[in-house]
Amino acid sequence: MQIRNRIKELRQVKASELLPNPRNWRRHPAGQADALRGALAEIGYADALIAYETDEGLMLIDGHLRAETTPDMEVPVLITDLDEGEANKLLMTLDPLSSIAETDQDALKELMGNVNIESLALQEVIESLLSAESIKENGAKTEVLLDQAIQLKPQREYIVVMCDTAEEFVQLQDHLELKIVRRGGYKKTAKSPDEVGVERVITAERLLHACRNTE
Question: CA–CA distance from 13 to each of 9, 17, 61, 171 (Å)?
Answer without folding.
Answer: 12, 7, 14, 43
